[in-house]
User: What shape does this take?
Amino acid sequence: MPSSQALHRSIILLILVSLILAACQPGPASMETPTSTPPASTPTPTLTPPRILTICLGQEPNTLYPYGTPNAAARSVLAAIYDGPIDYETYTYQPVILEKLPSLADGDALIEPVPVIIGDEVVDADGLPATLDEGVRVIPSGCPNDDCAVIYDGFSELEMDQMVVTFTLLPDLVWSDGTPLTAADSVFSYMLAADPDTPGSKYLVDRTQNYEAADELTVQWWGKPGFIDPTYFTNFWTPYPEHLWGEFTAAELPEADVATTFPVGWGPYVIDEWVTGDQITLLKNPYYFRSGEGLPRFNILVFRFINDSSLAISALLAGQCDVLDPSIHLEGQVGLLRALEESNQLQIVSSTTMITERIDFGIQPASYDNGYSLVAGDRPNILGDRRTRQAIAMCLDRQQVVDTVLYGLSPVPDSFIPPDHPLHNPGLPHYPFDVAAASQLLDAVGWKDHDNDASTPRQAWGVPGVLAGTPLVLNYWTTTATQRRQASEILAQSLAQCGIQVDVQYYLPDDLYAEGPAGVLFGRQFDLAQFAMGTAGMEPSCEWYMSAEIPTEKNHWVGTNVSGYNNPVYDAACRAAGRALYGDPEYAEAYYNAQSIFAEDLPSIPLYLHLRLAAARPDQCNFSLDASANPLWNLEAFDYGAACAGP
Assistant: This one.
């Protein structure tokens, strides 16, 4: 097979030859009598220069193998090679290379009762893969929630619900090397994902009973009995080229050039050249399934690597970049970018993300796991009363953090779900910065301003589980990141106005996130901890705060609920959200309930949503960022210049 460079040269040569041949074709025969008038000169054909788009990245891609944990820059390049298969835009799902998203209403998704016996692989009532046996707690067929879960006795007949989903590819899809793309490529991708040598989450693989091609365009997914997936219509594995990758093992692919450096796709562009340390050049894919729509808009796409934000901005102003990708960290350059935008030298493109910066309370330190005892030296239960946590929330000037550190580009959230998300509960209580209201609440709990001096910490007088006279002094752990230093300084000052003293300590990330029991975060050894949590899905998970997610010695200190928060009512609401189906009223209701409980109990205080910042030439169009999408999700439609002026 010819190399991509040779292919590029061949294409250019064919264009030149065709133009020359066209210019040399004889004209129509003439019946006029020749005269002495000299013949007109033959016009020279004009070659239209190729349109080139240059996107500057903040780093060089570490790999283009999708299962090889690609970095942010690599994910942007992959958006040019692949398109979909499902786009995530404004918190909605859009099929790209599928005819439609399957649905129960249309019959291409089913929930069927199936008999199960001892030894069958199922998903238990807690949502965990299990081998059915005596004593396993499961949800029988037709049971809508935990209320009718049963503990299997080992011999009774039992039926459980199973999901079956059918996906149909668009016809005539072709890989960029001209090979037809089929359902078998998606099954090959599933087999790769399931292989122990392939890195990445096995969550869906572990809950899948079978995934197979019914014909060249159709693939079917069977969940394990008991697994009711709210977003079942996304359980389609992105196709990868079996005809090229199939000769390698899962262990070999992360090092194979055909997967890591020059992968073929079905998207708008195909890689032509990778100059290490400099740039990647891509050409328009002649087999792109949307080429009939005039897409993509450019003949050549160049990704340049510039890891310094100041140099990147200079390159944009000099015309060496058309777009600055969010992988260039522009957060510290917002003031400059705004000034340049006001003078029409560039445009800022921004959005929030699905990553929330937060402060978690150390409600239940790990030392409480064997029973709480002040005599044994346990930390006083200073954060056990939710009113204390609510008061602390009102002592945090989060709006000043957003206005100062993030230039007002992020909202102050009141939930683990972003405020513009369709599942956000609009009726949640708010905790604005209010020293007077917070002081009243602290007084009611028993935290008294004993000396009428706000500059000294309050003391406990009648706080349950806290010795009288204990000062309201909290440790506050976070990382050394500049943005966190700025935020923590503002928040420490605002807490002091309420008589709450915090001792801020900055850790290197590896130290803060170290494994328990030694690690301060996952070992649950903190009062306040500031860090970020995000999701690759469309909904931040309520499971983050479930009791099953508390890191303990029993689960080897693995879990997201580092606060130690434990509320069975919250757990039940979250499990209901996990069993309801996306789009059903029960789905939104369950998320609303979970958020209401969260906002009252406050195991964690959301501070702000992380930003995604980009910049572009002032006449760039069709480039927008979306909280739930890849930054270059609609790269094929990017354009600039006269084409953006409209009719």
Q: What stands out?
A: The chain has three domains: 52-83+267-346+617-644, 93-234, 354-540+602-610.
